[in-house]
Design a protein that fits this description.
The structure holds 2 protein chains of 2 kinds.
Chain A (H helix, E strand, L loop, with lengths): L2 E6 L5 E4 L28 E2 L31 E7 L2 E7 L3 H33 L6 H35 E4 L4 E2 L3 H32 L3
Antiparallel strand pairs in A: 1-5, 2-6, 3-7, 4-5
Helix pairs in contact in A: 1-2, 2-3
Chain B lengths: L1 E4 L1 H8 L3 H8 L3 H8 L8 H11 L3 H4 E4 L2
Antiparallel strand pairs in B: 1-2
Classes of the chains: A alpha+beta, B mainly alpha.
């Protein structure tokens, strides 16, 4: 499993991985980190400290310099493969440590399970609706569970990203800006709003079930 | 307290079957059965009017209030 770390760049001078005993001979230098092909990694988003720039007037321009990334050394078999595009940086980490792999795997599997649960419930919901029975207690219950699952994804995914990001950042040292796990507040807000919408819809559906039952017994 | 629907009695008096009455009134046999077995929650005035028309009776002949 190969994944990487994504972070927006402002001023990233270099990344220096912790090294147990090995020191570079002349400051920073490029060094290949071949630690083996097997292993798993993660791509938790991280962001650097905000670095301000000059105010640009009309006609003024500034050249955004790309920053070299120098890995001085590696630690615990972490392989760093950077890739920068625009203002987003990506660093691919690999490790053969099975404990770390499990931790990183959990960051992906838990949201995936919740996604699959949502798809399963939506499928059942649509099946009942297509058959002409949308207002059923089962559908109201499914909507409620969909809401809780969406909320779970909105909380679990960023939380797991923070946990894995903190761990990875604890294994490397960054010179220049301070890297920290990046949490998308937009993603969280969207999930919370969607969850609230589903839960409210579930309550409305329950009321709809009562109305449908009343209507079916009206001659 | 509940409202009882005396449909059986009126059908016997008019010598009409349930299905025939359902056809004349314009409702399904299932709905008429619900009404006959006192399981209905509500009845539309239009349905009540059609029943009275076909059974030649008044609403009071069909509906009876009973205290439980």
């Amino acid at each position: 499993m190969r994944t990487g770390m994504v972070f927006p760049l402002a001023d990233l001078a270099s990344v220096r991985a912790l090294d147990h005993g090995r020191k570079p001979a002349h400051g920073r230098r490029h060094r290949s980190l071949a630690v083996g092909a097997a292993g798993g990694g993660q791509r938790p988003p991280v962001s650097p400290a905000i670095v301000g720039g000059p105010d640009l007037g009309v006609g003024a321009s500034v050249f955004l310099q790309s920053f070299p990334l120098t890995v001085v050394s590696n630690d615990s078999g972490l392989v760093v493969s950077p890739k920068f595009s625009g203002t987003v940086g990506e660093m691919l980490f690999q490790t053969s440590n099975w404990k770390i792999q499990i931790l990183l795997f959990m960051g992906s599997i838990i949201p995936l399970i919740l996604y699959m649960g949502i798809i399963f419930l939506v499928r059942q919901f649509l099946a009942d609706t297509v058959q002409g029975v949308p207002f059923a207690f089962e559908n109201a219950r499914r909507l409620k569970w969909i809401g809780w699952f969406v909320l779970g994804i909105g909380i679990a995914k960023p939380a797991l990203n923070v946990v894995t990001g903190n761990w990875i950042l604890s294994a490397i040292a960054v010179q220049g800006p301070v890297l920290s796990p990046w949490v998308s507040l937009g993603f969280i807000a969207t999930c919370v709003l969607a969850a609230c919408f589903c839960l409210i819809l579930s309550v409305i559906f329950r009321h709809g079930v009562e109305l449908a039952k009343e209507h079916s017994l009206t001659v | 307290m509940e409202i009882n629907v005396n449909l059986d009695m009126m059908l016997v008096r008019r010598r009409m079957s349930l299905s025939e009455l359902a056809d004349r009134v314009g409702i399904t046999l299932a709905n008429l059965s619900i009404l006959k077995t006192n399981k209905a929650r509500a009845i539309r005035f239009s349905t009540l009017a059609a029943l009275c028309r076909e059974l030649e009776c008044q609403p009071g002949d069909l509906l009876e209030y009973k205290e439980e």
